[in-house]
Write a structure and sequence with these properties.
Low-confidence stretches: none
Radius of gyration: 41 Å
Order of helices and strands: H
Distance between the termini: 116 Å
Oligomer: single chain
Mean pLDDT: 89
Largest sheet: none
Number of helices: 1
Amino acid sequence: MTALLCIGWAVTAAVIVWGLMLIWARIAMADLRKQARQEIRYWQQETTRARDRAAQIAREAATRAEGWKEGRDDVVAIMPMITAHAARAHPGDSGASVT
């Protein structure tokens, strides 16, 4: 009879341990899913910020390029005046040519 009681209690203990481990595993999986969702959310936000920053840099680069082009156009437009002024400022200097 004691052997049956020992076997019965061993089976009961095994079932209880199995149940507790199952609960522990579910809790651990829930925590891992929560951490994974948080990490995914973080990297999605980082991606959005990086895309916004890249778009801002592209806009700034386009604006800067347009400004440089306008500056070059202005210099090209006033070159005749600069060369005329240089010629008037140094009338006897035949070697003074501004390019």
